[in-house]
Amino acid sequence: MWDTLLQILREQWGWTLLRGAAMTLCIAFLGMALGVLIGIVGAQLKNRGPVLARWAISLYTTVVRSTPELLIIYLLFFGSLDAASALSGWFGAGAGSGGIAWHAAAVGVVAIGLISGSYSVEVFRGALNAIPLGHIEAAHAIGMSPFTCLRRVILPQMVWYALPGSNNVWQTAIKDTALVSLVGLVEIMRAAQLGAANTREPLILYGLGALLFFMIALISQAAFSMAERHFGRGLRVAV
């Protein structure tokens, strides 16, 4: 078994798995960034927005969280293909040319962004609600401008409160990238699948894929713990 493992690593599959890991991190990071943006805006709207905006955010979070992740990916992928075919037909390129169809990576980023955003809304909403109102009132009382209050009082505490929940959302986003392999994205899961089919060693290839996911999760956990300690300096006594 060890000889087979070394042979697989010496061949192209070791690099293929590493490239898949890089793609996994890229898709998860970009999707998470989109999700954080959705989460912050959605939390503000759900807390202080007009009734219609609060209703829209609640509908979005309910629909996305109740829909299987794979179904969201399929809807975006095949929906984009149909839209591209329709546009191509309108411009005389012929239906089905797919010249402007979304790439699987773009679909993955948008899908993971929508999924992680639906959870991040509640994460950031809870973080905002956890900030003591007295801290904000005290900042205004000493003459802080709204922007200064946001930068020096609200954001540091909001980030600290949101980090544990965001860690869970990030770990889920990492695992959800495996689903994007079903529309052609070569990330860890797809790379392991291709390697298993070519080498006829599924246990070794999928085991290496699992090891890569575990290492990413371990490093991510350490990074979030460091971030919590950094943003928590001076806050634990105050809150």
Automatic annotation (TrEMBL):
It is found in: Cell inner membrane; Cell membrane. One of its GO terms (cellular component) is ATP-binding cassette (ABC) transporter complex. The keyword Kinase does not apply. The chain crosses the membrane at residues 21-45, 100-119, 203-224. Keywords: Cell inner membrane, Cell membrane, Membrane, Transmembrane, Transmembrane helix, Transport. Residues 21-224 form the ABC transmembrane type-1 domain. It is a multi-pass membrane protein. Gene3D superfamilies: MetI-like (1.10.3720.10). PANTHER family: ARGININE ABC TRANSPORTER PERMEASE PROTEIN ARTQ, CATIONIC AMINO ACID TRANSPORTER, MEMBRANE COMPONENT. Belongs to the binding-protein-dependent transport system permease family. HisMQ subfamily. This is ABC transporter permease subunit. It comes from Candidatus Paenalcaligenes intestinipullorum.
